[in-house]
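Figure S4 source data
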Amino acid sequence: MQPTQPPAPLYGFAGCYRHPERLTGVRCVRCDRPICPECQRPASVGFQCPDDVRAGAATIRRGRTVVGATATNAPPVISYGLIAINVLVYLVTALSPGGNLANNTGSKLFADWELAPILVGLNHEYIRLLTSAFLHYGPIHILLNMTALYLVGPALERVFGWWRFLIVYLLGALGGSVLIMLFGDLRVPVVGASGAIFGLFAAAVVLSKSVGFNTRALWITIAINFIFTFSVPGISKLGHVGGFVFGGLAALAMMGWTLERHSIGPSLLRIQLGSVLGLTVLLVALAIWRTEDIHHAYNQPVAAGRPGVSAAAPAVARSSTVWTALGRTTPL
């Protein structure tokens, strides 16, 4: 077969440059090539061909937010993903043996993931510092935390971009856990995403001046949450305070350690990455120091004149399935 030849121009019509067999009288306003209806792209005047549209888009600089993230209207996938993960973990703990939808604390996963400071200290189970942030103590607990994440998360993610937002969230969660390890009751396990949520509250405060968040509504929300934290018994105050402090520090690092607008460029990115690394190293170092301190103290014999426990007590505490030596789980 012979290749299809474009039809000869007829009364000003010519074959489309991409589809030669289609006659058209419309030409690209930039390159003057004939374009059929399928290839026509509306322009401010007339039509452009697909090639010129792509070339023009490549030369347009995309907007940046105050922290250097690409401005976009894309769905906040990290916020929604975190909500989905938390809900999924709750369902797994609720539907596993020992748990139910009203009380999910009896499952093995719940026991293995909750932040039990004594177990972290004796067994060096550092992973609990983060896994506990994805556990929740009953349906009301997860409903409140996920509602807060749904309300504040998407707006912050659009400003921070996905990876900066995730870093702020995780540093808030880790900061709350480390403060619990440092000053909390070693026998009381703690669970919940509130440390990360309070970290996002602090991040919103840091961004409020540059982005234009409604600070009155924001401060009222934060005040109500802190009043609730310190007035209702059984809530981890240290987790909330730690999350707020380190979430705020992480957000301030993303701003270049200033509340004013920072020049967007490689220098800001270096500040962000260096600061995040520094905060992470600080939290990890504190966690390791406290863990070794607990491990050392609980393995000293009583006869040595230092705080210690009997030989049987560490064995009980080391078991992640025997909780008679621990207190009741505290929501975070």
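Figure S5 source data
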Amino acid sequence: MRIGPYELAAPLALAPMAGVTDRPFRLLCRRLGAGLAASEMVTSDVRLWHTPKSRRRMDHAGEPEPRVVQIAGGEPAMMADAARRNVDLGAQIIDINMGCPAKKVCNRAAGSALLRDEALVADILGAVVRAVEVPVTLKMRTGWDAAHRNGARIARIAEDLGVQALAVHGRTRADHYQGAAEYATIREIKTSVRIPVFANGDIDSGAKARAVLEETGADAVMIGRAAQGRPWIFREIRHFLTTGGDFPQPARDEVRDIMLAHLEQLYAFYGEHAGVRVARKHLGWYRDAAMPAHQDKRHDTLSVTSAEALFREMRVAESSLVQLTLARAWLEAAVGEVPAAGGDEEPEPSAAPPTGGRELRRAKVA
């Protein structure tokens, strides 16, 4: 499928998620099969762009085309200005957020709160499309609540104003992330417009992706929470859509290589202090999503207890060296022997090694 001049390598997109889809994670998911990966939501208030968080969200160094930046706000002129500035910084597609259900976003008349005001939606979309020469896309929900599912009307407004693709989460704002996604409204939206539509919500396997595509008639799927701790889901879905068969689960060594390389990228991107902390939630997701498939039935209770203790230590580590050392030991205890990526050598620290006695004692666990 195409968005403007860009032909996507696969009909699969990583959904933008605040605090998750930073540059390291986007690069990882693109490498593992995603055809598109949008940035975390960037505020349209340029006065806030001087913060480290905003600067990192607008850092696209080394990303493959097309580079997608998602912007959020409720004032047409500010949204247009933010779109222009992001294009100047390298954005090749501007995505507009009208799907976020978070209170702090909706309370500012942004995100999915905009779905209640179709006139304002039109003003924002029109202003952004006129402001830039790159494709503009829209991420939305099916409506504000079950009594106000106006997604099809919003979609027609978007198409009429020049928006070139839609991503639709199969829930209303009132649903947040609760209950099951519904796809009837996505199908209604798809039949209402001629532009490409991504179906989003509860897609966690190749079989589910195919079923949703068949039910909705959508052109592609967008994956969000199912990619957390399982970035290889994109190649699994891509393989299933192409062949109808399941892609083999990643081998133990590949899980190790993916996870440890991801940690290194986080340290390099955020720096020592912040990188270790950001890595903690990813480690939790890897354990929840990836490890169950590799649990060795031969492990006794002692091995399981050891793995849990190592995991707890890893989640409170204060340095990259200690976190990496504990991660390797945890993988070995959880899924069996995990050799070092470069032989028998320990991983090199990304920044200064730990200096506290408590940290040094943790490093000896492996």
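Residues 233 and 330 are 23 Å apart (CA to CA). The first strand starts at residue 2 and ends at 3.
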